[in-house]
Write a structure and sequence with these properties.
Elements lengths: L2 E9 L2 E9 L6 E5 L8 H7 L8 E6 L17 H19 L4 E6 L1 H12 L4 E7 L5 H15 L2 H8 L10 H14 L11 H8 L6 H22 L14 E6 L7 H8 L6 E6 L6 H4 L1 H11 L2
Parallel strand pairs: 3-4, 3-5, 5-6, 6-7, 7-8
Antiparallel strand pairs: 1-2, 2-4
Helix pairs in contact: 4-6
């Protein structure tokens, strides 16, 4: 192992946990932006995407308030802009330390909102952007998820859904959101072939990087971030942005009903930028882990 560093560093006033690993000297930098908001993913990347360390210096950042970077947000509140500032600070630190001009950026789900926004703001810092479980238009994606749940639900679930507001603006919006998401998972629209997230929980339980306290903090961080950020996240809409100044790659699960992959393909077809699209036929919202070998191979080819 050429480099293996794990630890918290101060980023814009908050200690945030960063993992840096590589088996290759002077490898290009790859920064992974996890989903959520607040849903840390370090053990999953280390388990399913470890082969990338043969080609890149892989950086996994647990964002402020998430997982090993958990802290209680103050009354002043938190916005997407805070995370974009953190991303920029971390990007500059990494580029300076490793003597590189640009890095590869991977954004998953919530992380894909940060990723697409960041490459518009700082295209000079990014070699290539890779989005998976990509968010394009959050309100439309939530409607698609709701319709998927509606098409499968029966009995009391169906009755409850009919009373649910999938714009998530009512007084009970958080419970509505968690209910709909739970049904999407249950009916296998989120994790391919699975009706629960057990496959994604096990790597945390057996990870050397995660303690039982970290797992508890991950749960608290996820719920806190959703409460604080969801209403702003619902305003996300990239549909009118047709051109990016960096190459854009979308890797999408064919059956993603968690964040509709059909919306991503429709958007991709309108882009005027350097672009590539990959369908993963045995994936939903997590192609990087459901078909990790294929995912790793595509990213490895970019580094050649």
């Amino acid at each position: 192992m050429y480099i293996n560093e794990q630890g918290a560093i101060p980023i814009n006033g908050a200690l945030q946990y960063v993992s840096i690993r590589s088996e290759k000297e002077n490898a290009p930098l790859l920064l992974y932006l996890h989903g959520g908001p607040g849903d840390a993913a370090l053990p999953l990347v280390q388990k399913y995407n470890r082969d990338l360390e043969k080609h890149y210096t892989v950086v996994v950042w647990e964002q402020r308030g998430a997982g090993k970077s958990y802290y209680k947000f103050g009354p002043e509140g938190i916005t997407i802009a805070h995370f974009l500032e953190d991303l920029h600070t971390l990007t500059e630190l990494l580029l300076k330390r490793f003597g590189q001009e640009k890095l590869y950026l991977v954004g998953h789900s919530w992380g894909s909102v940060l990723g697409l926004t960041y490459i518009r703001q700082h295209p000079d810092k990014i070699h290539t952007y890779i989005g998976c479980g990509q968010v394009i238009h959050m309100k439309k994606a939530c409607r698609e998820a709701y319709d998927f749940a509606l098409s499968h639900a029966v009995g009391k679930e169906l009755e409850r859904l009919k009373r649910t507001d999938c714009s998530y603006t009512g007084e009970d919006w958080l419970n509505d959101l968690l209910f709909v998401t739970g049904l999407v998972v249950k009916y296998k629209g989120s994790l391919y072939g699975k009706s629960s997230y057990n496959m994604l929980i096990k790597p945390f339980l057996f990870s050397r990087s995660y303690t039982p306290v970290d797992l508890y903090r991950r749960q608290k961080g996820s719920l806190q971030a959703i409460r604080c950020l969801w209403q702003e996240l619902m305003q996300t809409d990239f549909e009118n942005c047709r051109k990016y100044d960096v190459p854009v790659i979308f890797i999408e699960g064919r059956y993603d009903s968690h964040v509709s992959s059909a919306l991503v393909k429709k958007y991709f077809d309108t882009l005027e930028s350097d672009r590539q699209f990959f369908w993963f036929e045995k994936s939903c919202h997590f192609p990087q882990w459901s078909e990790n070998e294929k995912f790793n191979s595509i990213l490895a080819s970019l580094a050649e």
